[in-house]
Amino acid sequence: MDIRQLFARNLRAAREVKGLSQEALAYEAGLDRTYISSLERGRYYASLKAIERIARVLELDPAELLRKDEASARSQ
């Protein structure tokens, strides 16, 4: 799994845990909803500034959005 796919998976999971829609996350982060959607589908690489904004809204350390879990680490 490349870093873009890893970020996409972690972003979606964190957003769902917080109970936020893509639209709500985008609004709170000052980003466009279609950008959030594209990030979650792994279509774009997120900028560091976007990662920072998203992490702030999700109340996470930005590194959490790039962290591998045990299952994905073993499969590589």
| Assigned CATH architecture | Orthogonal Bundle
Determine and state the CATH class: Mainly Alpha
Gyration radius over CA: 12 Å
Count the helices. How many?
5
Helix and strand run: HHHHH
Number of strands: 0
Number of domains: 1
Distance between termini? 8 Å
Instruction: Give the CATH H-level superfamily.
Output: lambda repressor-like DNA-binding domains
- What is the averaged pLDDT score? 91
CATH topology: 434 Repressor (Amino-terminal Domain)
Structural class: mainly alpha
Percentage of β-strand residues? under 5%
Low-confidence stretches: 71-76
Percent helix among the residues? 55-70%
Short recap of the structure:
The chain has 76 residues and is mainly α. The chain has five helices and no strands. The longest helix has 16 residues, at 3-18.
What can you tell me about this protein's structure?
By secondary structure, the chain is an all-alpha fold. The chain has one domain: lambda repressor-like DNA-binding domains (434 Repressor (Amino-terminal Domain)), CATH 1.10.260. It has 5 helices and no strands. Helix 2 (22-29) packs across helix 4 (48-58). Mean pLDDT is 91; it is low at 71-76.
